[in-house]
């Protein structure tokens, strides 16, 4: 079927039956995320106009200042998913603990849990740089009819049934996978409709962009330092181009389109790295693999890691297949 002018709503309905566990519940869930994304997009776009910038005066569990828009995006996503009674549990980067969803009508009957980073890269908000929402969906492990428990959330990334992100950039896009490739939809703000603009997205096998916070170079381990030097050497198609927005969703999105590698390594100051396994790395790793790329946390595939806690951090390297494989050669030299 032609992809011309296809809306996200149409796409969801058309693909509802191709999903292997299909009962319509996942489609409703993606629809709810679509709705919340539009609401948050509206708030993000008017951020410079109204007085909702700056720290809200609260800190999240990682001890970082929350920006007001983080709080708002968190509320909007949780509210939308809760009101529609389509998930049994939500875990958010902005919440200390997971939330169990139940109602008198529903009695814990829903199958899916959602993990969400409502507004990633929020330090970029007050300088008008792109931010994003990241989401990850699993089937619960515990039986329906009972409240969710921590084990429903602490599943390895390979168990994800869907994952995606919204990038609030020059255009707003929703990009997601249900395990059958990656598709990108661009919002037409005039009418509030997402259109399929990037069908079947793929990382180029090779890339020429490396994205890392090089200000931390001195603290990186030798394998990463050597790989960065390799990127900078004059040989073949090198030196590569360095591009780092400091907003994972945007850096990933650009690298997927143009070919590149994103790195947030561990260092002598942050032994676990910075990014969260459940809210950031797993969904991006699922998307990367579905788009012909790779995602590793050092020696291991991100999607194989068994999480131990909700807010666990992990080093993260993700992008074009041959770039990640080359980096892995450097990392294994020192392990
Ligand atoms: P956040 O969840 O607190 O926004 O942090 C995650 C962000 C990523 O989007 C980005 O890639 C990274 O932190 C940038 O960190 P740094 O400023 O240390 O380079
Ligand atoms: Mg984040």
TrEMBL record:
GO terms for cellular component: cytosol. Belongs to the FBPase class 1 family. Residues 204-330 form the Fructose-1-6-bisphosphatase class 1 C-terminal domain. Homotetramer. Substrate binds at residues 120-123, 213, 244, 274. Binds 2 magnesium ions per subunit. This is Fructose-1,6-bisphosphatase class 1. Mg(2+) 2 binds at residues 117, 120, 280. The gene is fbp. One of its GO terms (biological process) is gluconeogenesis. It is found in: Cytoplasm. Its cofactor is Mg(2+). It comes from Euzebyella marina. It comes from the Bacteria. NCBIfam families: PRK09293.1-1, PRK09293.1-3. Gene3D superfamilies: 3.40.190.80, Fructose-1,6-Bisphosphatase, subunit A, domain 1 (3.30.540.10). HAMAP family: FBPase_class1. Its main location: cytoplasm. Keywords: Carbohydrate metabolism, Cytoplasm, Hydrolase, Magnesium, Metal-binding. Mg(2+) 1 binds at residues 93, 117, 119. Residues 7-199 form the Fructose-1-6-bisphosphatase class I N-terminal domain. One of its GO terms (molecular function) is fructose 1,6-bisphosphate 1-phosphatase activity. Pathway: Carbohydrate biosynthesis; Calvin cycle. It is an enzyme of class 3 (hydrolase). Pfam families: FBPase (PF00316), FBPase_C (PF18913).
